[in-house]
Amino acid sequence: MADRFKTVLLFGAPGAGKGTQGELLGKIPGFFHMSTGDMFRSLDRDSEAGKKFESFSSKGELVPDEVTIELWQDYMSKRIAEGSYDPSSMLLILDGLPRTVNQAKLIEPLIEVLGIVHLSAKDKEAMVQRLRHRAMQQNRTDDAKEEVVRNRLDIYERETRPVLNVYDASLVHEIDAIGTMASVLCSVLNVVAPIQAHHAAG
Ligand code: AMP
Question: Could you tell me the distance, in angstroms and rounded to a whole number, from the CA of residue 36 to the centre of ligand 1?
Fold first, then answer.
C-alpha cells in the first residue's frame, strides 16, 4: 500500500443511513463502498475473529482498534488483488471507520481524507426507530435489543463523534439524514461527485 487511498468518510450515528447511502454510491462506477460493519458480519461465525466480533457487537460495543485496522487492511488487500477496487481510479467511500480517535491516527498513513459526509438528524428517536426497523428486516441481533441500541448511541457520542475534530473543519459536510433515500442521495452526491471527478481526472 504505497499511495494512500483517496477517501471520503461516511460519518454519522447508527441509524443515520450511512450503509444505505454507501451502498447506493457503490453502484456508481468510480466509487468503491467499504463498510466495516459488513466486513465484520461477513466473518465466519465460528472463526476466532468471528467469535471476537460477536462478543463485542452483541453488547453494542466496538471491536478493539488494532484488530479492526488489521482486518480492514487485509480486506482491502484482497479487494485490490481480486480487482474489485482500483485505488488509482476509484474513490473509496469508507463507512464506519474510523470510529475512535485512535483509529483515525492508526489509519492516517493509509488513507487520504478528501471529504467527510456527516449524516446527522436532530430527531434521535427517528434514528432509534430506523434501527429497530432494520433489525427486524435484516435479522440483526444487535439492534433488536433496546439496551444495545442505546449503548451504540452512547458510544457514538462518547468515542466516535470526537473523531470529527481530528480533521480540518473545511472537510466536513453536514447533511440532514432525515428525508427520502433519493433526496439524501442527492445531497451526498453534491459533495462526493466533484471529489470523484477530480480524482478520476488525476
Ligand atoms: P455498523 O454496521 O457499522 O453499525 O457496525 C456493527 C458493529 O460492528 C459495531 O457495533 C461494532 O461492534 C463493529 N464495528 C463496525 N465498525 C467498527 C469500527 N470501526 N471499530 C470497531 N468496531 C466496529
Answer: 6
